[in-house]
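Worked Example 4.2. Consider the chain below.
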Amino acid sequence: MKEIAELYKSNDEAAAKTIERLCFFFGKATSVITNMLDPDVIVVGGGVGNIDALYTKGIESLRKHIFNNRLDVPVLKPSLGDSAGVFGAAALAADTKVNLKLKD
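Applying the procedure from the previous section yields the following structure tokens:
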């Protein structure tokens, strides 16, 4: 996805179509979650969270698909970036190690 995002920035036609499709379906899919759960915040994780168009065109698509006439939920990049999964795994491993020691 990183390569497509870079090509999109350099005005590649195929990359532009891909990003446009991503943003459309991001808004459509996220609207389902927003309509059903009414979250306080939406954090877009993984490599997709680094695509700036999601925070403009993707949010426009979300606005078009939600039931409400306004979008109140913030859509954010993860504060840990792509490393959130690594931090989570490390925390889980550390917690498991502590729990294993306590059980002995």
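The mean pLDDT is 87. The chain is about 60% helix and 5% strand. Compare this with Example 4.1 before moving on.
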